[in-house]
Amino acid sequence: MIEIIGVITGFIMILFALMAIESKKLLNSIVFLSITSLLSVVEFIIMKAPDVAITQAVIGSGLMTSIFVFTLMAMKKSGEK
C-alpha cells in the first residue's frame, strides 16, 4: 500500500514540476514548485527519512518559496520605477 502511495505521489510531483516549467506567470510557477517540494516531503517520509523530510519542509518548501516570492515582489517594484 505504501509503495502505491509513493508511486502516485511521484507522478503528481512530475505533473506539478511540468506545470511549474510551463506556467506563464512566475507566481504560479513558484506555487507549483512549492507543491512539488511538499510532495517530496511525503516521499521522504515514505522512505523513512524523517530528518531529511523536516529539512526539506523547512528549507525547500518554506525558505525557498519565501525567497522566490520576495524576489518576485522586488522585481515588480523595481520595474515600476
TrEMBL record:
The membrane topology term of the UniProt record is: Multi-pass membrane protein
**MrpA C-terminal/MbhD domain ranges (all copies):** 12-75
Q: Where are the transmembrane segments?
A: 6-23, 30-47, 53-75
Which Gene3D superfamilies does this chain map to? Answer: NADH-ubiquinone/plastoquinone oxidoreductase chain 6, subunit NuoJ
The species is Petrotoga olearia
UniProt main location, coarse: membrane
User: What protein name applies here?
Assistant: Membrane bound protein complex subunit mbxD
Question: Cytoplasm: is it a keyword of this entry?
Answer: no
